[in-house]
Structures are given as C-alpha cells and as structure tokens.
Give the backbone structure.
Amino acid sequence: MPSSSSLERLRDTNRRAVTALLAAEGPMSRADLGRRTGLSRTTVSSLVGELLTAGHVVETDRGRPHKGGSGRPPLLVALATPAGVVAGVDLGHRHVRVALADRAGVVQHEQTAAADVDEHGTDALDRAADAVRGLLAAAGIDRDQLQAVGMCVPAPLDRRSSRIRAGILPGWRDVSPADELRRRLDVPVHADNDANLGALAELTHGAARGCGDVVYVKVSSGLGAGIVLGGRLHRGATGIAGEIGHVQVGEDGQVCRCGNRGCLETMVAAPRLLELLQPAYDEPLSVERVLELAADGDAATARVLSDAGRSIGRALADLANSLNPEAIVVGGSLGTAAPLVTGIRAAVDRYAQPDTAAAVRVVSGELGERAEVLGAVSLAIGRVAAG
C-alpha cells in the first residue's frame, strides 16, 4: 500500500501538471484538464478545489460545450494573477540573460550580457543575481515581491544531487546551481536544463501550443532534447531524459565532452558544422553567417545542414517510434535553418513507422534565443502556483 508521503508526492506532481497546463493553454474546463493530463474527473475536481481555496486559480466565463455540443457551457478554470513577480535566468554557454515577469508570465524587463558561463560558474551566478536585483530596482519593485526564480543551465542536472552532470561543464564542479542562486537572492530557485526549458517555452508560448506530446530538439553548441508527455515535462529517473546528443553513432568517432566516443553531438553540433564548412569559404564563418548563407540558398551550406538534419532525424525517428509525439520542434541557434529542418523531416519520414511519421509535425521553434529564459519564467510560475 502506498505510503502517505508517496501519495502526497503524487498529488503534488498532479497539482503541478494542472497549473503547468493552465499556464500553457490559458483557461480550460475541468473536463479538458482531465483529458489533457490523463487524470480522473474526481482527481481533477479535488485538485481544482484545493487550488481555488489557495487562490492559485479562479473560475472565469463559461466556455463552449465540448466538441460543439449543445449542453450548458462549462465554467473555465484559469490561473490567478496575484501580486508579485518572478524572474527567469538563462545561463547559456556564453551569456547570462535575465527576465522579470508578472505572475501571468508577461515579461516586464529583460537584459542580456556576455559571460563565460562554462568556465566560471560562481561568477555567472553572481552576475545573474546582480541582474535580478538590478531589474527589480529599475522596475521600482521591492525585493520582497519576488516570489521565485526559474533558472536554465546549459547541461543536464542530476535530480538526486541537484548538481550538473559530472564532466560536462568544467567550471561547475561540486556546484548546485539552484542552491547557490537561492543563497544569493534569498528566494526559492528552481533549475532545469536548456532543452527542457526550451520545450516548456515552446509549449507555453510558441510552436507547440495546444500539443500534449512534443519533442523539442535544441541544435546549438551542443545537442539535446526536451520531452513533453501528456502536457508535462518528462525528466526521467535522474533528470537526464532526452540526451539524444549522446546517442552513439560510431564506436571509433571523436571523443565527446561526456567522455564517450562517437556521440551524435560530435557530428552535428554547431562547432563541428562550422569546421566542416570553413574550408569552402574565404571569410570566417559564424552561426549567424551560416544562417544567412542557408537563407540565400548557398549549395554547400544547404548540403552540410541537410546532412546534419538527416543524422539528427535518424535518432529522432527512433524516439518518435517510442513516444508517438504530435510535434518535433527544432530550436537552438540553428533551429531556423530550413535545410536542417528539412533533413530532419526526411529522416523521420524514412525511418519512423509510417503512422508515426504521418502524425508528427516537424517545425522550427518560434521563440529563438529567448526560448530558455521564457521557459525559466514559466517554470517559476508553475512552481509558485503549485505551492
């Protein structure tokens, strides 16, 4: 028989699923909440009752009958917009981006600064804390109005230790990012990796709105995926679900930053693609320049990006066969490159089960470089709403 503590953890997880769905989709009926979360009508009714009592949600105007029926329109449940603000912190490999938002997720102030996050973890956290305090001061908001901070880190986080996976970022050894930023700001801080928060942002604000089962793949200086199942992030037993960049594609390949050899990331991440393309051009190449060349129809760029997309799509096809997602959203610095997205689509069509391939859209993300900070804001809102 389940213990009371395990039942409470399950109930807390279910509360978070409901509030996250309301944050992503806006007002919904209890019936739709049940359909989208997979929870029973009784469970949803009980959870909504708790959230109403706590002031985290409100009932609003009646919606349309389900599937256009003629019955009485249901009351909708919506997240309340109480006083206070949240902050989102995006620690990229080479930048610190911070956003201040109200509890409805509307960003009020935002700033970005260059930083060597990989090598200097404590410095990056100091800069993030200073930026949060600076935005609060610029907005004329008292620090006691800051309810929570969501934080994005560019590496997998071990759910057991709250630390970055060993060996991934040299400047973060023995550092728990959320604990360290919490100590600096004296507010609750909730951390997750960049692919997961990119997925959450696209689910809430971008290309995956209205979807329940999504794979978000971030193609940038590394390669990773955020997985959404039943409207909620799937992190796995230890928090490292979605690490498709470390699928082995060649036993004798290059040594990867994870310590293995022949990982997919060593073949298709942005630094490798720039290295492949550079001999064909007299000018120094950057990701921005590669995107310009791709948009102009440059043949060499299109070939390299298309090949990379096919390699990524081969791994995603296997994942799609297992998860049967509605959408694959391509984000990161290369996410808008049409040849890359086309290559992914071609590989999914070739290697996934026909019905699986037919059911999934493959699209570029809509939020670009702001996806992670917006995902961090959504994470903070969801955690505050869940209590």
Observations:
- The chain has three domains: 4-79, 85-198+371-385, 207-366.
- The longest helix spans residues 299-323.
